[in-house]
Design brief:
This protein is of the alpha/beta class. Helix content is 38%, strand content 17%. The chain is built from 15 helices and 17 strands. A hairpin with a 4-residue loop joins β2 (45-48) and β3. The longest helix has 22 residues, at 338-359. The two termini are 22 Å apart. The structure holds pyridoxal-5'-phosphate. Residues 61, 117-119, 122, 148-150, 200, 204-205, 233, 235-236, 285 line the site of pyridoxal-5'-phosphate (PLP).
Length: 445
C-alpha cells in the first residue's frame, strides 16, 4: 500500500536495550508488555526508538481519540498551563464547570464529578450506590460476567473475570456477577440488599460484546421497579466511539437500529425506545482527555446531590489543565464530525473484517462490535493451521505478527484482536490496516 504520511524522521538513537534495562531494574513488572520501545507519534502513527513506523489501531487502549501529537491538544495544554494547572477542589475554576456542562448537555439532566481514571470514576459510582442504599441497609452491586471495571480493590471485585481477582482475595464484599444480556438472570439475582446494577454498553476487555436494546430497556424497567440504580461504565465504549456520545445512545437509536449494526443476525425487530432512556450513573475516562489523564462520572438529576460536601474527593480531580484539554477534545470531535467518521469508518472496517471471516473461516470466526470499537474473533488456537504451538494465546500471537508488519492492535481475552483506533482515522489508513491484517490472516490459513 502507498505511503500516506511522510517518511519517519531520521534514525533515532536506538535505546531499546537501555530502556528495557531501566524497566527491568526499576519498574514493577505488573504489566505484560510487548517488546517495543516507543518514541513518538504523529496522527494515527507511532514510531519506535529505531524509527520503525506503526499504524496505531489501538490508540493506547481506546484513549488517543485524536491520534498522537494533535496540535489542538498540544495547544490547549500549553495555553492552559500558562494560566493555571492546579488549584485543588477547595476553589471553583471555570474549565471544570464548563466541562461538566458539556458532558451534561450530551448525556442528560444531572451533574458530574471529576476523577483521574476509569477505575476511580467507577469507585465514585460504587460509593454513590452505597450512599443511596445506606439507610435501608442496601449495598450490593450486580455486575456482568466478562465485564471489566478497573484494577482497584473495588474494581477487581466488580470485574466479572477471575483472572483480575486471583491472588488478591478476599474480595471487597458487596459485588455479585450476572450473565450479560440475560434479563431474566438479572431479575433472579436480585436480593433485598441489591442497590445497583452496573454494565458496559459494549463489553470491551471482555471481548467487544454489545448489549442488546432489550437488555438495556429491560434493566431500566427492572431498576425502576425495584428502586435500584442502573449504572453504566462508559469508560471504553464512550466518547463517540460507537458513533454516538455514549454506546447506549447508539444501541437504542431508531428503535434498536444500532444493535442491528452490531449483529446482522438480528433483523427487523423494532423496539419502542423511550426518548428519555438514561442510566442513573455513568463513568467516563480514556478518550475524555484524548491521552491526558482524566476520569469522570455523571449522575442523573434525582441523585445528583447524594454525594454532599465532604463525602467524596480527589486532589487532582478536574484540574483546569485536564478540563481544558477535555473541552478541546470535545470541540475537535464536534468540528470535525468525528462521530460520523466513527460510524462510517467503523461500518467499512467491520465489513472488511467480515469479509476476512468469510474468506478465511479456518482463521477468523467473526467480526465484532460497532462504530470504532471492533474486534476480530479468531477461531481456537489449536484449529488455526499456521499458529505456532506456543503458550501464547491466539490473540497475542496475532498481535505480535501484526507488529512485525507495522500495525498495532490489542488482544482481548484469548481469541479476540481488538481495534479501538483514533476517531479521526482516515479511510486510507483503515485500508492499510486491513491489508496488513489480511496478510497475517493469510499467512495463518
Ligand atoms: C470498561 C472499563 N472500565 C474501567 C476501566 C478502568 O479504567 P482505568 O484503567 O482508567 O482505571 C477500563 C479500562 O480498560 C475499562 O475498559
Amino acid at each position: 500500500m502507498k505511503e500516506i504520511v511522510p517518511s519517519p524522521p531520521p534514525l533515532i538513537h536506538n535505546q531499546f536495550e537501555s530502556v528495557r534495562e531501566l524497566f527491568a531494574k526499576n519498574v514493577v513488572p505488573s504489566y505484560g508488555r510487548f517488546d517495543l520501545v516507543l518514541s513518538h507519534g504523529e496522527g494515527s502513527y507511532l514510531f519506535d526508538v529505531a524509527g520503525k513506523r506503526y499504524l496505531d489501531l489501538g490508540a493506547g487502549i481506546a484513549v488517543c481519540c485524536l491520534g498522537h501529537a494533535h496540535p489542538a491538544i498540544t495547544g490547549a495544554l500549553v495555553e492552559q498551563s500558562r494560566k493555571l494547572i492546579h488549584v485543588s477542589n477547595l476553589y471553583f475554576t471555570e474549565p471544570q464547570g464548563r466541562l461538566a456542562a458539556e458532558l451534561v448537555k450530551r448525556i442528560g439532566p444531572g451533574k458530574c464529578f471529576f476523577a483521574n481514571s476509569g477505575a476511580e470514576a467507577n469507585e465514585g459510582l460504587f460509593k454513590l450506590a452505597r450512599k443511596f442504599g445506606h439507610d435501608e441497609g442496601r449495598f450490593e452491586i450486580l455486575t456482568a460476567t466478562n465485564s471489566f471495571h478497573g484494577r482497584t480493590l473495588a474494581g477487581i471485585a466488580a470485574t466479572g473475570q477471575d483472572k483480575v481477582k486471583k491472588g488478591f482475595e478476599p474480595m471487597t464484599p458487596g459485588f455479585r456477577h450476572i450473565p450479560f444480556n440475560d434479563l431474566a438472570a438479572a431479575r433472579a439475582a436480585l436480593s433485598p440488599a441489591t442497590v445497583a446494577i452496573m454494565i458496559e454498553g459494549v463489553q470491551g476487555e471482555g471481548g467487544i460484546t454489545p448489549a442488546t436494546p432489550e437488555y438495556l430497556l429491560g434493566l431500566r424497567a427492572l431498576c425502576d421497579e425495584k428502586k435500584i440504580l442502573l449504572l453504566m461504565d462508559g469508560v471504553q465504549d464512550g466518547h463517540y466511539r460507537t458513533g454516538k456520545f455514549q454506546s447506549f445512545q447508539r444501541i437504542l437509536e431508531n428503535g434498536g437500529e444500532g444493535r442491528r449494526a452490531a449483529d446482522p443476525n438480528i433483523q427487523g425487530r423494532q423496539h419502542a425506545v423511550p426518548p428519555g432512556f438514561l442510566p442513573d450513573g455513568l463513568s467516563m475516562a480514556k478518550s475524555l482527555g484524548g491521552g491526558f489523564p482524566i476520569g469522570a462520572f455523571w449522575v442523573r438529576a434525582p441523585f445528583a446531590d447524594l454525594l454532599g460536601p465532604g463525602t467524596h474527593a480527589t486532589t487532582f480531580g478536574g484540574t483546569p489543565l485536564a478540563c481544558a484539554v477535555a473541552l478541546k477534545v470535545l470541540e475537535v470531535i464536534q468540528q470535525e464530525r468525528l462521530d460520523e467518521n466513527a460510524r462510517k469508518l467503523g461500518e467499512w472496517l467491520k465489513t472488511e473484517l467480515e469479509r476476512l471471516a468469510t474468506k478465511y473461516p479456518q482463521v477468523v470466526r467473526r467480526a465484532r462490535g460497532l462504530g470504532l470499537i471492533l474486534g476480530l474473533e479468531l477461531v481456537e488456537k489449536e484449529k488455526i493451521p499456521g499458529l505456532a504451538a506456543s503458550d501464547k494465546t491466539a490473540a497475542l500471537q496475532f498481535v505480535n505478527r501484526l507488529h512485525q508488519l507495522g500495525v498495532m492492535t490489542i488482544p482481548a481475552g484469548t481469541q479476540i484482536v481488538r481495534l479501538p483506533p483514533p476517531l479521526n482515522l482516515k479511510l486510507q489508513e483503515a485500508g492499510e490496516g486491513i491489508a496488513r491484517i489480511e496478510e497475517v490472516v493469510k499467512s495463518l490459513a
